[in-house]
Design brief:
Strand order of the largest sheet: 1-2-4-3-5-10-6-7
CATH superfamily of the largest domain: Zn peptidases
Largest sheet: 8 strands, mixed
Number of strands: 19
Helix content: 25-40%
Number of domains: 3
Radius of gyration: 24 Å
CATH topology of the largest domain: Aminopeptidase
Low-confidence stretches: 1-12, 21-29
Number of helices: 14
CATH class of the largest domain: Alpha Beta
Oligomer: single chain
CATH architecture of the largest domain: 3-Layer(aba) Sandwich
Strand content: 25-35%
């Protein structure tokens, strides 16, 4: 009987990862059961429930003086969204983290609660650091970084354990949670509309702690390939260029190379196989995913954080997925410690530049574009059944493909000095506050003020609902005129650290703005003016 896909590669990869763990500084031989994850205690047949995660975090806090426990907030069903900080000296608040002068790193997992390998790997890495804090590799982290780990972001989805929630995934055999939260929302599509309490808690944390580097740990859903883990930098090109470039061009290539050298395990940029044209070769293109900031990794990049998405390979056994998340994150943190000062400087300079006015133009519709050179993707020879469903064989195959890896804008706007919201839009203002945007009342007096006004020319509504919404797209024409404003109008300046986010949210033609998410439906009509005005630069 031929070996199933991944059998030989899986054995080699697992051996390499386990050897890498064994070569680290010695850990205590006997680890208290309270410090083991559910995955470890079950020989990787099960994953942890919410109570298990809380108990392990409490045990880590009791075992080490370097830990402080905290909470992002609560889920829609009232479950805690816990975090721990790991730092020396320990820090318990955002103010203490900022006062340390160290680079702040935030790692969270389980936004999709069926993708549980990041949750378990993050808990294991925390324990390894805390039980051997003086090991040279851990001491380097503690000297240069403040680590904030939030292993179970979607606590409600995590509790809905099912053996059928991810039928294509290889384990854990006793089941895992579901993708959505208890409200039925995909939390990784909620970053702009902010309808879930989990998302509101996340944005409050980002505004308070201002991490320099953010990691979002996932598991794939797509193509068959030979990488245990794929990764992505922020893909929305409207985020500050320097932080995005640092992650894309310096950090990720270096981390991938170091992991390969240390463990023998290859990783690559996230993507899926596609055809170049309908009916063509379905392995002609390796394409990344959306640039829209409803996705967390793009949202973090738009805010100016350095951001990395990790995707463990769903068809690899659960044990391997956990270990590769752990080892890839370990390499990332080591690189971050070695480059802590340039990471911190690059991000903070991006925030300062945005606060002084930021870019002159911002794009808010984008199209996927190809890299200058093709890529070689490590895959498998595949077969198809009568229905056309593909399945990998045990024979490896490398595919030379067009690599669709970045986005270019198809619609841009010259940014205004500010956006002006009339009274009567309390829900919109509440959304902007959740993002942490700065606002103030109009103080320009009642004399007519030169403004820019959009006229809505055409409206298109999606036929099918998405996340409880029928998304809206409009075409609009901008004109100048004078309007009288009053103190009940709200001013949202663009010269602030989140100014580009304000543009994305408030431009009516934005593909992921508040108009798209139905926030202006009550007054939206063809031939009518959009209620949000623009205060021009001149």
């Amino acid at each position: 009987m031929p070996l199933p896909p991944w059998a030989a590669t899986a054995c080699l990869a697992l051996a390499a990862l386990q050897q890498a763990r064994e070569e680290r500084p010695a850990m205590p031989i006997d680890i208290d059961d309270a410090l083991l994850t559910v995955a470890e205690r079950s020989d990787f047949r099960a994953t942890s429930l919410h109570a298990d995660v809380l108990a392990l975090l409490d045990a880590l806090a009791a075992a080490s003086p370097l830990v402080r426990r905290g909470s992002l907030g609560t889920t829609s069903e009232g479950r805690d969204i816990p975090w721990i900080t790991i730092a020396d000296p320990p820090v318990a608040t955002a103010e203490e983290a900022a006062a340390s002068g160290k680079t702040r790193v935030f790692v969270f997992a389980n936004i999709h609660a069926g993708e549980v390998c990041g949750k378990e790997g993050l808990l294991m890495l925390a324990r390894q650091i805390l039980l051997a804090p003086d090991a040279p590799e851990h001491r380097a982290l503690l000297e240069h970084l403040v680590l904030v780990f939030a292993p179970i972001y979607n606590g409600d989805g995590n509790e809905r354990i099912s053996t059928t929630s991810r039928p294509e995934q290889d384990g854990p055999e006793q089941g895992q949670g579901i993708r959505a939260n208890a409200m039925g929302l995909d939390l990784n599509r909620d970053y702009m509309k902010v309808e879930a309490p989990e998302t509101a808690a996340m944005l409050a944390f980002l505004s308070e702690w201002e991490p320099h580097l953010v990691f979002d740990l996932h598991t794939t859903d797509g193509s068959f390939h030979r990488y245990l883990l794929t990764y992505a930098p922020p893909l929305n090109p409207e985020g500050p260029g320097a932080p995005i470039g640092f992650v894309r061009d310096r950090m990720l290539p270096a981390v991938s190379a170091r992991l390969l050298a240390r463990t023998g395990q290859d990783t690559f940029l996230y993507g899926n196989f596609e055809a170049a044209e309908p009916g063509g070769d379905d392995h002609a293109v390796w394409a990344t995913y959306s640039a829209q900031p409803r996705f967390g990794a793009q949202y973090h990049g738009l805010r100016g954080h350095m951001s990395i998405l990790t995707e463990a390979y769903s068809h690899a056994p659960f044990r391997e997925r956990v270990l590769v998340q752990l080892e890839f994150l370990r390499e990332c943190l080591a690189f971050a410690a070695e480059h802590a000062e340039p990471i911190r400087r690059t991000v903070e300079q991006a925030w300062a530049t945005a606060a002084q006015g930021g870019p002159r133009t911002v794009g808010f519709r984008h199209v996927l574009a190809a890299a200058d050179e093709p890529a070689v993707i490590k895959g498998w020879v595949e077969t198809k059944d009568e229905s056309g469903k593909a399945a990998p064989t045990s024979e490896p195959r490398d595919y030379e493909v067009r690599h669709d890896d970045h986005f270019v804008p198809t619609l841009e706007v010259v940014v205004p000095r500010a956006y002006l919201l009339p009274p009567g839009h309390d829900a919109v203002l509440a959304n902007l506050r959740r993002h942490g945007l700065q606002m103030q009342p109009w103080q320009g007096g009642s004399a007519p003020t030169p403004v820019e006004v959009y006229r809505i020319d055409a409206i298109t509504r999606a036929e099918q609902p998405f996340e409880g919404h029928r998304l809206v797209s409009v075409e609009a024409t901008l004109r100048r005129e004078s309007r009288s404003l009053g103190p009940d109008w709200t001013v949202v300046p663009v010269a602030q650290s989140l100014g580009t986010l304000a543009v994305y949210l408030l431009e009516p033609q934005s593909d992921d703005g508040l108009l798209a998410w139905n926030a202006f439906d009550a007054t939206l009509a063809e031939g009518q003016d959009f209620p949000v005005l623009r205060l021009p630069m001149e």
